[in-house]
Amino acid sequence: MFGGSRGAHPARAQRRRHRAVRGLLRKLFGTEPAKRRPGYANFAIAEPPLKLVLLEDRGQGGSLNHLGIEVADTDMIDAEQTRLAAAGLASVDERDTTCCYSGRTSSGSRAARTVSAGRSIRSRRTARPSGGRATRSGGRQSRRRSTPGSRDALAPTPRPPANQPRRPPSAARSCLSAGGSRQMSGLDASPAWVQATAASRFYEVVKSEGRPAMRAISDKGHTEMNSVRTRRQDAGPVVVIGAGQSGLAAARALLDHDLEPLVLEAGNRAAGSWPCYYDSLMAFSPAGFSSLRGMPFPGHPDHYPTRDEVASYLERYAARLGIDIITGSRVVTVRQHRRGFVSSRLTGASSWPPRWWRQAAPFPARIAPPSPDRKPSPARRCMWPITATPRPTPGSA
Amino acid sequence: MADYRDPSAYAGQRVIVVGAGDSAAQVANELAPVAGVTLAARHPLRFIPQRIGGQDVHYWLRATGFDSLPAGWLDKIAGGSVITDSVGFRQTLTEGLLDVRPMFTGFDGDQVVWGDGERERADAVILATGYRPSLGYLRDLGALDASDAPLHVGGVSTSHLGLVYLGLEFQRSYSSNTLRGVSADADAVIAPLAAWVRDAPRTIGLITPQIHLVGDHAILAGEDDAPACCATDVASGLPAAG
Fold first, then answer.
1. Is B234 exposed, middle or buried (0-12, 13-18, 19+ CB in 10 A)?
2. Is A256 an 8 Å CB contact of chain B?
């Protein structure tokens, strides 16, 4: 597939394809091949530390069907996308794709030999604070790999056929997959992988109109092959009850952890109880000390924000998060469902964003920031019943 | 207090505001010019200066680390609410526009009974005594104690894995239920939640089946036949509560 011609009279079109693939890899890795011989190309990449050896395997197919580059954080994802776009590579964000894992046996064992990139993951592993545990779990990794029945129920993974040979641990740590299911499926029990790739994005080489192209599979595509790595939406939403300052802070923290919040708010604004407070209420803290993370409170830092200023600040904060907030949705009860919870609400099912209905798993978790006491009567929408509490309010609203 | 919006409805009335915090001070202060106002408190009012050394007191809450003191310690040292008084309550008090009395002992018809036995008719009593979370929707789950308060340590549920709370008063610190403090608390509770969502115990090799009762069925945690949808909504005839 790569390199020069090994066959007797390769078609001109095939040579063009080979050149295109090499060019693609140059752009992808930002480096020239270290070695090139007919039917052989060798990329030595410093960051991530990776040696990629490409062998031509004409006529067999499946020798290389996707490539992944692991990046450390979301900023790098954007930088990578910008760089690839500048190099003329199409980068398509494909959600919910499961392109990287397949149960096929025909190509898996063959392709595994083309890649070994253990250093990449190992170096991340040693960077973890709990280095000792990582070593132990590395041992578990190989054990777990041989018992696919123990896979995580949250991310059902096709069970690799039993007749496939077990892969050596070094290959299993690869962060770059070439052609196969087995190679990547070996990652499933590696906590280091989970840590390192929580915010990573992968690119896949695909054929587009006969030409190779890059496709960003974002962080959506790998759970199928890596059962412990939970992607945002595969984890199901983490439901946040209440869209006040606490609910929004929770949503922000969830995003920081690459989890997808779904915020349910009983009121009609993403501002919690603030719109319901008395007209003259001023925050007891000046604006300079009234900010949620990531968005300074507007105005002079010494002024005391009014009720309406705070409500409006929260609404803008909510909008900036870009998350699903369902207003007019009052949770009436929550019950446990396996590892997660199921809620009942007063409002109808149609108000759920449709994409949540595609979830195969129940909500894995639920956050319940308290909203100030509201009596259950639907007529009392905006309430702050003051009840004597053993602990009085601190000097802050 | 929840129904209180502005002073206009109380013009010319005899109003008793109950509380010793900033909310009570703000409401009493704005009622004072138009109504006969008494502030009733269970303990003497305590003021902390709005500005210290040219800086707002909130600067010092942060700079001194006061905001990071754990709630358990504050229990022993803070001892009740304080008034920072950004609206000039003390000025109003010295001008004699309102007075402050120890908490009344009870009601008798439309009268309040003060501690010294005096009875006085009141048009309105406004409770500005704080609030507590309304978590009734978690009652059936068994996440609350007998007084409907959440069972938690620092906002992390002690009754249910995968359930956390945020914004509780004194959840972790003095600033837990404030705009300036809630983001730090969010970090503290979301980190363990994320680990749970990602099934960290299983990842490191701990597999502990748990039986949860759902309806009539005992379900082994980790069972693989997930339902087609994840929420049961009660599409009842009830109006959507705002």
1. middle
2. yes
Position B236 in a domain = no
B98 vs chain A: nearest CA distance in angstroms?
Answer: 18
State the nearest Cα–Cα gap between B118 and chain A, in angstroms: 23
**Quick one: fold of A238-367?**
FAD/NAD(P)-binding domain (3.50.50)
- Judged against a pLDDT cut of 50, whether residue B26 lies above it is answered with yes
In total, how many domains does chain B have? 2
Of B87, B183, B232, Cβ closest to residue A344: B232
Q: Using a CB-CB distance cutoff of 8 angstroms, which residues of chain B are in contact with residue A396?
A: 22, 175, 177-178
Q: Let me know whether B19 and B107 are in one domain.
A: yes
Domain with CATH 3.50.50.60 in chain A: 238-367
B121 CB contacts (<8 Å, ≥6 apart)?
A: B14, B110, B111
Question: Which of B203, B208, B211, B217 to mutate to test binding with chain A, by most A CBs within 10 Å of its CB?
Answer: B203
Contact between residue A24 and residue A205 where contact means Cβ atoms under 8 Å apart: yes
Which residues on adjacent β-strands are paired with residue B120?
A: B112
Tell me, yes or no, if B9 comes closer than 8 A to chain A by beta carbon: no
- Does any CB of chain A come closer than 8 Å to the CB of residue B141? yes
Q: What is the average per-residue pLDDT within A248-274?
A: 86
Give yes or no: residues B105 and B14 share one domain: yes
**Do B163 and B115 share a structural domain?**
no
pLDDT number for residue B81: 79
Owning domain of residue B154: 136-220
Out of A190-194, A225-229, A311-315, which region has the weakest mean confidence (pLDDT)? Answer: A190-194
C-alpha–C-alpha distance, residues B135 and A166, integer Å = 51
B52 CB near a chain A CB, below 8 Å?
A: no
In what helix (H) or strand (E) does residue A252 lie, and over which residues does it extend? helix A245-256
- Specify whether B107 is located in the same domain as B171: no
The phi and psi torsions of B225 (rounded to 5 degrees) equal -90, 75
Nearest CB partner across the interface for A393, out of B23, B202, B227: B23
| B239 part of a folded domain | no
In the predicted model, what is the mean pLDDT of chain A? 52
Q: Tell me the shortest Cα–Cα distance from A253 to chain B, in angstroms.
A: 6
Q: Do residue B231 and residue A370 have CB atoms under 8 angstroms apart?
A: no
Q: Are residues B112 and B161 in the same domain?
A: no
